[in-house]
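ugh ok fine here u go
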Amino acid sequence: MKKTVHNSNVSFYGLGIAPKILDILDRMKFTTPTPIQHKALPIAIENKDIIGIAQTGTGKTLAFAIPVIQRLSQKNGRALILVPTRELAIQVNETFQKIASGFGIKTAVIIGGVSMNLQIKALRKNPRILIATPGRLVDHMQRRSIVLSDINALVLDEADRMLDMGFLPQIEKIIKFIPKNRHTMLFSATIPGAIVKMATAHMKLPIHVEVAPSGTAAEHIIQEVFIVQKSSKRQLLEKLLQQYRGSVLIFSRTKIGAKKITRHLQQINHRAAEIHSNRSLAQRREALEGFKTGKYRILVATDIAARGIDVRGIELVINYDLPDDTENYVHRIGRTGRAGHEGRAISFATPEQGSDIRSIERLINAALSIVEHPDFPKEEFIKSSGHLKGARLYQGKRRKHSSLRNRRRKYYRNK
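structure:
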């Protein structure tokens, strides 16, 4: 599919957006739509079901927020936005409020980690836009503190991530209680087969809008790989943090790893904070807000922060550990180089992880630059023999099963 060119001749005018919303966009200094906005808005405003595929950081939230608010301003009913994580729910709500407040439309965020009673009070104020994570929404449905019979617009944001986190049963349950005569939009950076199956079951002849192939990494990001021994990762990280002076987002594979990295950075006088599911919602919000404001120069995160966190001006993303799920590489590095700005992503790979790097290269359809640091000995990827390959396959299967168990535990712990 031909890619839409993002240039200064394109504007929000002529896309079917109501004049009042155009005035709000002007006041927000939004003058030029991103490619996904330019392609998706005219279709969504006509209330046609849509599957929108675009790299992370390209403005998908506004691409569904505008049609939802325009629809609610013209007719009765409410909208439901389902998202995978608490942080993304808060971020999406901020975008909605910028426009919905001009119409007197209230929003409510329904997520775990927040008092159920406070959320019930918010629901009693009759918000017309509900932004929710699946687990907590099902909790409210079971308590009968929320009714979905008047939902006429449904958005599944980062749907592939929701399925990856094991939320499919909850999503199916939620959709059963929403009227079939509704407008449905699905947005994501990737579209695996499970998404196609779900769209076929729950959408009416959806129009597929794609501004980049599924899995394509965002443009303007310099991507590099250091081959490094596991025992040398910490020292290499210290060297890179001396070289790059801007804001840095570091990804760890595990919560324990994120905590250890953060403690080490704090001990050597770096302003660092951590964000993962072992932290309370208040702690996660404080860390994210501190990162946005510059209180913390470094944020260490697990993949919970890989999607939908709109923090502008991140100079560098470091994959201290490669992701278990190859597709998460795209979402991780998409935290830098946002909105057309240049960014940089550096990954640490041990000599045994050559196959993992090759999997990433196949996903993004590009070769990653292997670079060396003058203070560290040159390393190379180990050429796998049949024995090693079989061992890694066995380990991969064990890791996959372990990951599924962890996702189930995570759901019941974080809903």
